[in-house]
Design a protein that fits this description.
Blueprint lengths: L7 H8 L11 H12 L4 H11 L3 H8 L13 E6 L2 H5 L2 H12 L12 E6 L11 E3 L3 E3 L4 H12 L4 H6 L4 H16 L1
Parallel strand pairs: 1-2
Antiparallel strand pairs: 1-3, 3-4
Helix pairs in contact: 2-3, 3-4
Bound molecules: FE2/S2 (inorganic) cluster.
FE2/S2 (inorganic) cluster binds next to helix 5.
Length: 189
């Protein structure tokens, strides 16, 4: 059964937002729906989306490749994205990456044996002044990550503590939070 077989009403709503001859423009909402519900977009789904919007699976894959949000392979419960652009690199992201690969025993595209973790190197996460920065899943940013903070983060997540609680109780989180607030205030003046 196709992913969209029982979502015909939803598809009709999406397509109603685009001109008749612009079905390909609906590619993004369809991709987003699959990513949100299945955690990644398999080749089967790419083909299904391509057929629905009237394009090729290659084009769907091409669009996906522009966005680190879309995954072509299954990810772990905690998908850890490490910013490896210059500011974060200078602040130590290479070391963090090495620590993650060693401790989790995985490379990008793999999932740890317990199903908890997957890894991805990403471009600038937009918080260069608080690097190195990592992002967990779609919304949780961890800033000024040191080896100590990273190990504490992995410890907490390995025990399945809630992500927000783990983030809040990381070593040095209070100072990091204050620093970010000061930076924001400085930017406002
Ligand atoms: S360089 Fe890492 S957040 Fe910008």
């Amino acid at each position: 059964m196709g992913f969209f077989d029982d979502k015909q009403d939803w598809l009709a709503e999406v397509f109603a937002q685009y001109p008749e001859d612009r079905r390909r423009s609906a590619l993004m909402p369809l991709l987003r729906r699959v990513q949100q519900e299945e955690g990644y977009v398999s080749f089967e789904r790419m083909k299904e989306i391509a057929e629905i919007v009237g394009t090729t699976a290659t084009e769907v894959a091409g669009v996906m490749s522009f966005y680190s949000y879309y995954q072509g392979l299954p990810t772990g419960k905690y998908h850890i994205q490490v910013c490896r652009t210059l500011s974060c690199k200078l602040a130590g992201s290479d070391e963090l990456w090495k620590t993650l690969v060693e401790r989790l025993g995985i490379l990008p595209g793999e999932v740890s044996e317990d199903g908890r973790f997957s890894l991805q190197a990403v471009e600038c996460l937009g918080s260069c002044h608080t690097g190195p920065v990592i992002q967990i899943n779609d919304e949780h940013y961890i800033e000024r990550v040191t080896k100590e903070r990273l190990q504490a983060l992995l410890d907490g997540l390995s025990e399945d503590k809630p992500l927000e609680e783990v983030r809040r109780t990381l070593p040095g989180e209070e100072e990091t939070g204050k620093h970010v607030i000061e930076l924001v205030k400085g930017g406002e003046s």
